[in-house]
């Protein structure tokens, strides 16, 4: 495998947090995990591939929903233990709830309040 992957400080499970950020607006869309293979595949394909901890397998973002993330750039933080993927989110929906971003709740008056609409019913996305 590529030596650039050796620079990443993988956690004890061989994973690194990956933040997907809209390349045009800078909006944080989601956070997921990547292993060496998924990071390498993302770089090779030009599309985001993550590691699903719940399914214990590679997860090509959009393989089911069609909401693929076209990769523009991969950045590594100063501690080498987090990556940021600058992406173009096809279909405008990154979250499995049918929203643009997974970060759609805001803490207000001691409670989490939903401040962003569902753009598409998840039942219509994941058939």
TrEMBL record:
Its EC number is 3.5.4.19. It is found in: Cytoplasm. Keywords: Amino-acid biosynthesis, Cytoplasm, Histidine biosynthesis, Hydrolase, Magnesium, Metal-binding, Zinc. Its cofactor is Zn(2+); Mg(2+). Transmembrane segments: none annotated. InterPro entries: PRA-CH, PRib_AMP_CycHydrolase_dom, PRib_AMP_CycHydrolase_sf. PANTHER family: HISTIDINE BIOSYNTHESIS BIFUNCTIONAL PROTEIN, HISTIDINE BIOSYNTHESIS BIFUNCTIONAL PROTEIN HIS7. This is Phosphoribosyl-AMP cyclohydrolase.
